[in-house]
Automatic annotation (TrEMBL):
Disordered, as annotated region: 32-52
InterPro entries in alphabetical order: Bact_solute-bd_prot1 (IPR050490), SBP (IPR006059)
Keyword terms, alphabetized: Cell membrane, Lipoprotein, Membrane, Palmitate, Signal
Pfam families attached to this UniProt entry: SBP_bac_1
SUPFAM superfamilies recorded: Periplasmic binding protein-like II
Compositionally biased intervals (Low complexity): 32-45
Annotated source species: Cohnella abietis
Protein name: Multiple sugar-binding protein
């Protein structure tokens, strides 16, 4: 077993499979017909499902990624193509471990959800993901070069285009009832937190059980503290030209992150709180804000369509820019799967407007495909795109630059952030981060660490 998988030897495939929630997309009667009594054709075809041999695709995804629209898409595709999709839905904090275990055992799903290219090094994309460069859907991509990996090949179908909008998502009714305005400076932001706390409402809801959410306030703080120096600093860190201890802005960001907890601006149960809980607390007005990405608003509106949630870029360091990302969510085909060609055929069908439009009608966003309708964006997200992304008022996140250290972020860095939220010394945390990165870089043979 390779060094990257040694940490998972204890975890058997059987024990992890018990954590799976298997959701089978049932498509109903395969002989469903249109108004003329003939079988519904698939995009670009004339034959109905009665002419097509059935098969099943296993699709590994995480709880936060699984949307009802995906089941609707699968049902529609089954009616057209006689293909069933079995969604294997895994808790977010178990997803990476399970996929690595499956890769090590050779028992892989047909397709898998990933963050690309951020997690490509984690899963050794060149070895484990099928090269999709020759697939028909590639020609339909908008700005196709942004989806290529370092070898100029495509290893994932982008389910959405890059477009992260990270900042404060707030309950408008809470703000209105307390007479609060959106803050323009960090001093104003702190005053807002004080007033909310004084009213007996949790100012910021943190969900640190799901450590991927813990990172977001730090992405905001660190990026805003660096400002125009962000890209250069991130590059120096991943090339081992600088350590985190050499970057005063990181200590500043981590200290202020910890102060949010120390000053009582965060829910007391933040260590055990989950992403799902954060949505409910925000909608119910028990929390005034959640620091997150625009996916939070999409998830909330799917569950609570009448929720009145707003957005503002946190003015950390008095910066009027938004934290964004160049990474994208994608679907990869496992190279060692049992039916690679069928999986690629299914993926090409999955990309078609007929099915993608089902998703974007329910979950409006930025499609990667030229011929897919992204739907009507929530007004708050549209306003953020117009104000920040379209005008270049963007600072890219640390994660975009740490792809070579894939696995370090979620296994080392984010848990240390949680420890800081629990009271760990900031100086001690920074020493631990640098120590872990040095060890990780040497093991992974990242250039500059060898």
């Amino acid at each position: 077993m390779s060094s990257k998988n040694k940490g998972f030897k204890w975890l058997t495939t059987v024990s992890m499979l018990s954590a799976l929630l298997i959701v089978s997309a049932c498509g109903g009667n395969n002989n469903s017909s249109n108004g003329n009594g003939s079988a519904q054709p698939s995009p670009g075809s004339t034959a109905g499902t009665t002419d097509k041999a059935p098969y099943t695709i296993t699709y590994l995804t995480s709880q936060s990624r699984m949307q009802n629209a995906m089941k609707d898409m699968a049902e529609a595709l089954k009616k057209d193509e006689n293909i069933t999709v079995n969604f294997e839905v895994v808790p977010d904090n178990q997803f990476q471990t399970l996929l690595l275990t499956k890769i090590a055992s050779g028992e892989v799903p047909d397709v898998v959800d990933i963050n690309a290219p951020e997690t490509f090094p984690v899963y050794n994309a060149l070895e484990n993901f099928e090269d999709l460069s020759a697939e028909p859907w590639v020609a339909r991509l908008n700005n196709s070069d942004q989806y290529k990996y370092t070898d100029d090949k495509y290893y994932a179908y982008p389910t959405t285009a890059p477009g992260l909008v990270a900042g404060a998502y707030y309950n408008k009714q809470v703000f209105s009832s307390l007479g609060l305005a959106v803050p323009n400076t960090y001093a104003e932001y702190m005053a807002v937190l004080d007033k909310i706390k004084g009213a007996g409402i949790t100012p910021i809801y943190m969900s640190n059980k799901d450590t991927w959410t813990t990172q977001i306030p730090m992405l905001v703080n660190f990026g805003a503290a660096l400002g125009d120096n962000a890209n250069e600093t991130y590059t120096d860190l991943i090339q081992n030209k600088k350590k985190f201890a050499d970057v005063p802005e990181f200590k500043q960001a981590l200290t202020d992150f910890q102060l949010l907890v120390k000053n009582g601006y965060v829910n007391k149960d933040h260590v055990t709180a989950t992403y799902d809980m954060s949505q409910q607390m925000l909608v119910e007005g028990k929390a005034a804000m959640v620091v997150s990405g625009n996916f939070l608003l999409t998830d909330i509106m799917n569950k609570w369509p009448q929720a009145d949630i707003g957005f503002f870029a946190i003015p950390y360091n008095d910066t009027d820019k938004v934290i964004s990302a160049s990474i994208f969510t994608g679907i990869a085909v496992m190279k060692n799967g049992k039916q690679v060609e069928k999986a690629k055929k299914w993926l090409n069908l999955w990309t078609q407007p007929k099915y993608q439009d089902i998703n974007f009608k329910i979950n409006p966003g930025l499609p990667a495909m030229k011929d897919v309708d992204g739907g009507e964006l929530h007004p708050e997200i549209q306003a953020a795109y117009d104000k920040y992304l379209k005008t270049g008022k963007v600072i890219y996140q640390l994660n975009d630059f740490f792809a070579p250290a894939g696995g370090f972020l979620d296994s080392k860095l984010w848990p240390i952030y949680v420890e800081v939220a629990m009271g760990k010394s900031v100086d001690s945390a920074i020493k631990d981060i640098d120590k872990e990165l040095q060890q990780f870089g040497k093991i992974k043979k990242i250039p500059g660490f060898e």
